[in-house]
């Protein structure tokens, strides 16, 4: 039921958009929120594993991954446009654990199947929101 309400709200927002820029803004907000929610769920899952595994090596790897995902969330929250969001996610998928930008958190390869969208599926438009 929650998902139906969410989609109805998105439909209403899309319907109310009267310009391409407004539509891009709606889509940017939706994708940003969905991506962050997906990453937060992954962090919750990893946190539950750190308390049940008991293996110190595995636990350290899980904690490192949680830190990387938390840094990725910060990068996504800082995105100001679809293009920037696309660049962050593209960097995450292509470059693994190398930082995308100076001063930003590390990006770790993986978990693509949990992302609600793929950067290559978004159109590359020259107008920014």
Please sum up the structure shown.
By secondary structure, the protein is mainly alpha-helical.
Question: How is this structure best described in words?
Answer:
With 129 residues, this protein is an all-alpha fold. It has helices at 2-16, 20-53, 56-78, 82-95. It has four helices and no strands. It is elongated. The chain starts with a helix and ends in a 34-residue tail after the last helix.
List the keywords:
mainly alpha; disordered C terminus
Question: How many helices does DSSP assign?
Answer: 4
The helix/strand order is: HHHH
The number of strands is 0
By helix and strand content, what is the structural category? mainly alpha
Between the first and last Cα atoms, what is the distance in angstroms? 31 Å
Low-confidence stretches: 97-129
Percent of sequence in beta strands = under 5%
Element layout with pairings:
Blueprint: H1 2-16, H2 20-53, H3 56-78, H4 82-95
């Amino acid at each position: 039921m929650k998902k139906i309400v969410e989609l109805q709200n998105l439909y209403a927002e899309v319907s109310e958009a009267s310009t391409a820029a407004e539509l891009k803004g709606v889509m940017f907000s939706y994708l940003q929120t969905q991506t962050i929610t997906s990453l937060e769920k992954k962090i919750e899952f990893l946190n539950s594993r750190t308390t049940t595994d008991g293996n110190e090596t595995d636990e350290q790897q899980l904690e490192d991954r949680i830190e990387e995902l938390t840094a990725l969330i910060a990068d996504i929250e800082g995105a100001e446009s679809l293009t920037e969001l696309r660049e962050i996610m593209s960097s995450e998928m292509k470059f693994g654990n190398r930082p995308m930008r100076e001063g930003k958190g590390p990006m770790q390869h993986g978990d693509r199947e949990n992302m609600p969208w793929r950067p290559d599926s978004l159109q590359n438009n020259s107008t920014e929101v």
